[in-house]
Write a structure and sequence with these properties.
The complex is a heterodimer of chains A (429) and B (162). Chain A is an alpha/beta fold. Chain A has 17 helices and nine strands. Classes of the chains: A alpha/beta (429), B alpha+beta (162).
Chain lengths: 429, 162
């Protein structure tokens, strides 16, 4: 059975966003257990045993990230990255709007494990509804004594602040998020240090974890790390939410066992297949940033390694499905326009490169392409990828380059001025 | 436009809430926009005054974020997502339906100042219910041209400022 509902087990329960309902369904038992029976290191140890890898996109082992914190340096901060903005991703919004206390409990447990006394949840500006739900839930948790001083008589103190962004995709990048949280323009920071664990928020040791990652922590603490590690293949432990959107009959969030579930099962069994009885042309396994795959990749397992071997990535867990009527030049143009719009402008390859690619793609889409335009796009991509200040620039090229690889004839036709027979998605600029 | 006493008090509280007053800039700007509808140079100066910093610092930060409006918007704001997942499921038809029903193009406000209509290239996160939009920051999903026309009529019939 590919579906494994853990984080979403009670998510349709009416009123789950309220403390009393969450508690009635077993909420905050993990926190009670940890604060009464476990030391901070024992909580970290369970997370280590679970082999949980971050659900934000980079899939970094969570316990290992925590272990990078320098010993004895305080204050230190925990920041929940709730700036979900990857095109095609909507799982964190789902978790926050329906089960805010699960995430809050995960934040308190994680803060206890790393001994942070101040935590932030940075919620993207567009998610006002999620932010309001969270703010109410935090106040409920505070009134119940789960947040504040001497939590449940343990002596552990924690303050939690919900912070709203204001419309900037780049702030999902963790160093840009921290810069934004400090009140600056949300530009990414120079690496190294590669992780803000040594120097993060206000220059202090900081752990940044994703909403889904933190929402998993109560289940790991309550049921044990070994239990979590018993689910899924060796390098992709635990259930994971996959957001499916685009041309399927039933888009939505699906919590699955990674690896055990193939893309074909997800699209054809769980999501009811490609809509309107059409055939699949392509899909992106990890959201707008990730390389496109095709129908030859339908039997891949949904896990980090399988996707990487196929030349793409599970990324933020956002699967975007495209049927046979879609033109790859059109989609490339739309995605590159997005990255051009969201480039923070700090570094030249990304700022100028995305602008240039956008210009070329617009003329190709309009049937006014030139013979060497495809080669030009490949050349610009090479100048951006690996040469940008942060991943935004790199990822701006990935869909385009992979689309040219798998669908060269479509780009060639556009370059020859013939365009294609596909109905354009026709979105005003 | 002077800020209300309540908003000033809110900004002062925010200043105390964060380890650094500078972190209060974004929430303070949200408070100002909530009261005044958009962010003026005077609004930024007021934020700077109450956070006890130079106005240029607030301006430098504010100009980076696309959700801080620099000019007055209508009483209601409609934002249609046009990123890939919504585009694949017909956001173009939703855009057309609004443009025809409201008589304005994306980025414009109706002459009666009731509705500002926008499209966004940044994915709104409503992909599971695409095509999606937000009206006054609230999601509406699984939109159709008919639902768009009905929403346009509804917004112009009930002129409730946000």
């Amino acid at each position: 059975m590919p579906v494994k509902e853990v984080l979403t087990k009670n998510i349709t329960a009416p009123g789950l966003f309220e403390l009393k309902t969450y508690e009635r369904l077993g909420g905050y038992l993990a926190l009670r257990k940890a604060l009464k029976e476990m030391t901070p290191d024992q909580v970290s140890e369970e997370v280590k045993k679970s082999q949980l890898r971050g659900r934000g996109g980079a899939a970094f082992p969570t316990a290992q990230k925590w272990s990078f914190l320098p010993k004895g340096v305080f204050p230190r901060y925990l920041v929940c990255n709730a700036d979900e903005s990857e095109p095609g991703a909507f799982k964190d919004r789902y978790l926050m709007e329906h089960s805010p206390h699960q995430m809050i409990e995960g934040i308190i447990l994680s803060a206890y494990a790393i001994q942070a006394h101040m935590a932030f949840a940075y919620v993207r500006g567009e998610y006002l509804e999620a932010r309001e739900v969270l703010e109410r839930a935090v106040e409920e948790a505070r009134a119940a004594g789960y947040i504040g001083n001497d939590i449940l008589g343990s002596g552990f103190n924690l303050d939690l602040l919900v912070h709203g962004g204001a419309g900037a995709y780049i702030c999902g990048e963790e160093t840009a998020l921290l810069t934004s949280l400090e009140g600056y323009r949300g530009e990414p920071r120079l690496k190294p240090p590669f992780y803000p664990t040594s120097k993060g928020l206000y220059g202090q040791p900081t752990v940044v974890n994703n909403v889904e990652t933190l929402s998993a922590i109560p289940h790991i603490v309550l049921n044990g790390g070994d239990w979590w590690a018993s689910i899924g293949p060796p390098t992709a432990k635990g259930p994971r939410l996959i957001c499916v959107s685009g041309h399927v009959e039933r888009p939505g969030n699906y919590e699955i066992v990674m690896g055990d579930t193939t893309v074909r099962e997800l699209i054809y069994d769980l999501c009811g297949g490609v809509w309107k009885g059409r055939n699949l042309k392509a899909y992106q396994p990890g959201g707008g940033s990730m390389q496109v795959l095709t129908k030859q990749h339908l039997d891949l397992g949904l896990d980090f390694d399988s996707m990487q071997k196929a030349g793409s990535s599970l990324g933020a867990g956002a699967l975007v499905v495209m049927d046979e009527t879609v033109c790859m030049v059109d989609v490339s143009m739309r995605l590159v326009d997005f990255y051009h719009h969201e480039s923070c402008g700090k570094c030249t390859p990304c700022r100028e490169g995305t602008y240039w690619m956008s210009q070329v793609l617009h003329r190709l889409e309009a049937g006014e392409g030139r013979d060497d335009d495809v080669a030009l796009l490949q050349s610009i991509s090479k100048t951006i990828d690996g040469r940008s200040f942060c991943f935004l620039g790199d990822t701006a090229t990935w869909f385009l380059v992979s689309a040219i690889k798998y669908f060269p004839e479509e780009f060639a036709a556009h370059a020859a001025g013939r365009t294609c027979s596909a109905e354009p998605l026709r979105i005003p600029a | 436009m002077a800020l209300s006493e309540a908003t000033v008090e809110r900004i002062r509280q925010l200043k105390q809430r964060y380890p650094s007053p500078r972190s209060a800039i974004l929430p303070a700007l949200w408070a100002v926009q909530h009261e005044q509808g958009y962010i003026t140079p005077e609004g930024m100066a007021a934020v700077a005054e109450h956070l006890e910093m130079e106005a240029s610092i607030v301006e430098a930060t504010a100009s980076f974020y696309s959700m801080f409006l620099q000019k007055p918007a209508g009483a209601h704001q409609v934002v249609v997502c046009t990123n890939v997942s919504c585009a694949l499921r017909g956001s173009a038809e939703i855009v057309t339906a609004f443009e025809e029903a409201l008589g304005v193009r994306a980025g414009e406000t109706t002459p009666d100042r009731l509705v500002t209509f926008q499209t966004t290239v940044e994915c709104l996160g409503g992909c599971g219910g695409a095509p999606a939009l937000q009206v006054d920051h609230r999601f509406r999903e699984n939109m159709t041209p008919d639902k768009a026309r009905a929403l346009a009529a509804e917004l112009r019939a009930v002129p409730t400022p946000h």
